[in-house]
Structures are given as C-alpha cells and as structure tokens.
C-alpha cells in the first residue's frame, strides 16, 4: 500500500511541475503587446527648482531624480518670448546615462544655471525635451 501512495505523490508532483512550466513559458502569440493592466500613461518627471535673483541675474538650482549614480545632469536656461519683455524662463535639463557598469539605485542629482532676466518671471523645466513638473526644494 505504501508503494501506491508513493506513486500517487510522485504523479501529483509531476503534474504540478509540468503545469507550472507550461504556464510560465511565453507563448508564440505573446508578441510583446501590453495587456490592459500594463498600459500606463507617460510619467511626467518632477524637478525641484529654486530661483535666486540678484542684480539682474537668476541663479537657478535644482535636483532631479535619475536611475543611477552614473547618470549625468546638465542644465541650460533660456528666456521665453521677447528679450525686452520675456514671458518666462525655461530650464532645459539633459540627463545622460553611462555605459559603464553601475549600481542601479535611483538617486537625486543637483544642477545649477544662471541667466539674465527681469525679476518675477515664471520658471518651466524640460527633461530631455519633455515637459516636467516643477516643485520647490
């Protein structure tokens, strides 16, 4: 009678392993399309900006979250609109990665840029050409 229990247990384990394998292997019809739950709207990056105005010059500093510590951040400010009557300042932030082996740990990197413009003009930011949400640090 013990041999029958042993064979039954072995058969159950074999069925579980085979079914688990069949369910875990990708199918030919799975061509990379996203299912309804995996579709997401684009993530708008968040940039923390701080503006200090002194003697006609804005010093804009900030932080942006990046994927790893090997990334580099560069920021360039430009006046939006007419130079005599600007509508605002846009900070174009460029985040570049590295091909080196790097610990994939999200981190925050700082940047700074300066520009001459009148006081009290609004600030906007872009990251790699996409508009970003700005917050105070």
Keywords:
17% helix, 137 residues, rod-shaped, 1 helix, 7 strands
Class inferred from helices and paired strands: alpha/beta
Shape: rod-shaped
Rg measurement, Å: 27 Å
Strand order of the largest sheet: 3-4-6-7-1-2-5
List the secondary-structure elements in sequence, H or E: HEEEEEEE
Q: What does the largest sheet look like?
A: 7 strands, mixed
* Mean model confidence by pLDDT: 83
Alpha plus pi helix count: 1
What is the strand tally?
7
Question: Helical content, roughly?
Answer: 10-25%
Q: Can you tell me the residue ranges where pLDDT is under 50 for at least 5 consecutive residues?
A: none
**First and last CA, distance:** 73 Å
Approximately how much beta-strand content do the residues carry?
Answer: 35-45%
Describe the model.
This protein is of the alpha/beta class and 137 residues long. It has a domain at 46-135. It is 17% helix and 45% strand. The protein is built from 1 helix and 7 strands; from the N terminus they run αβββββββ. It has one helix spanning 2-24, and strands at residues 46-54, 57-66, 72-81, 86-96, 107-116, 123-127, 130-135. Strands 3-4-6-7-1-2-5 form a 7-stranded mixed beta sheet, with no helix packed on it. The chain is rod-shaped. The relative contact order is 0.22. The mean pLDDT is 83.
SSE diagram, text form:
Blueprint: H1 2-24, E1 46-54, E2 57-66, E3 72-81, E4 86-96, E5 107-116, E6 123-127, E7 130-135
Parallel strand pairs: 1-7, 4-6
Antiparallel strand pairs: 1-2, 2-5, 3-4, 6-7
Give a short summary of the structure.
The chain is an alpha/beta fold. The chain has one helix at residues 2-24, and strands spanning 46-54, 57-66, 72-81, 86-96, 107-116, 123-127, 130-135. It contains one helix and seven strands, in the order αβββββββ.
């Amino acid at each position: 009678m013990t041999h029958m229990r042993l064979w039954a247990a072995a058969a159950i384990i074999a069925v579980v392993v085979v079914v688990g394998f069949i369910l875990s292997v990708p199918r030919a019809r799975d061509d990379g399309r996203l299912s309804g739950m995996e579709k997401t709207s684009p993530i708008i990056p968040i940039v923390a900006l701080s503006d200090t105005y002194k003697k006609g010059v804005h010093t804009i500093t900030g932080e942006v979250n990046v994927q790893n510590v090997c990334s580099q951040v560069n920021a360039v400010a430009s006046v939006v609109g007419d130079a005599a009557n600007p509508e605002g300042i846009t900070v174009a932030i460029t985040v570049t990665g590295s091909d080196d082996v790097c610990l994939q740990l999200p981190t925050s990197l700082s940047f700074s840029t300066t520009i001459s413009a009148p006081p009290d003009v609004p600030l906007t930011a872009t990251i790699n050409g996409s508009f970003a949400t700005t917050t105070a640090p």
